Amino acid sequence: MNERIWSVVVPAMMLAACGQAGGDSAAPASPGETAFAQCRSCHGVEPGVNGVGPSLHGVVGRAAGSLAGYGYSAQMRGSSLTWDRATLERYLAAPQDVVPGSRMVWVVVDAAARTAIIDYLETQR
Ligand code: HEC
Fold first, then answer.
1. Is the shortest distance between the CB of 60 and ligand 1 below 6 Å?
2. Is the pLDDT of residue 16 over 50?
3. Burial of 79 (C-beta count, 10 Å sphere; 0-12/13-18/19+)
4. Averaged over 71-89, what is the pLDDT?
5. Which pLDDT value is given to residue 19?
């Protein structure tokens, strides 16, 4: 009798645990992660993995053009900027105004999308 109860209860507990883990990984993407999709063709957020653009892992607080192993333009390397929130905000709105001659020409027109992307980048450290 006891044995039969456990054969029902234990698999049910295992299912519950699986359900929880599955729920986490299926969590909907944050607005920032969704907006960051437009950057992904050139940028990843994995440390040390550069694409057309440099890895944006830990970019918030980083000196512009400072990642070893990525071939920045001379303009980006010489810009003396630090990627704090305000600088990122200006750069994403008008990269060519902030770093004239930068090889990045991508513009994020929508202010809410810029904020969401910067929120997301702050979590990638
Ligand atoms: C078409 C390719 C492309 C897209 C799309 C793109 N970038 Fe870039 N990005 C680059 C390149 C190339 C550089 C290097 C520029 C240079 O060296 O002048 C760069 C540089 C940067 C830098 C400076 C990083 C550093 O280490 O100094 C930041 C920040 C950045 N991009 C953010 C973004 C974000 C956020 C998005 C999405 C909204 C985005 N980029 C979309 C190509 C791209």
1. no
2. no
3. buried
4. 98
5. 44
For ligand 1, whether the C-beta of 39 sits within 6 Å is yes
Mutate to test the pocket of ligand 1, among 84, 87, 104 (most ligand atoms within 8 A of CB): 104
Q: Which of 104, 92, 115 is nearest to 65 (CA)?
A: 104
CB contact set of 62 (below 8 Å; sequence gap of 6+): 82, 83
The amino acid sitting at 89 is E
Of 118, 86, 108, 97, nearest to 38 (Cα)? 108
Please choose, from the candidates 111, 119, 110, 114, the residue with its C-alpha nearest in 3D space to the C-alpha of residue 29. 119
93, 114 Cβ separation under 8 angstroms: yes
Q: What is the pLDDT of residues 67-77, one digit of tens each?
A: 999 999 999 99
> What pLDDT, on a 0 to 100 scale, did the predictor assign at position 1?
52
Q: Would you place residue 20 in the very low, low, confident or very high pLDDT band (cuts 50, 70, 90)?
A: very low
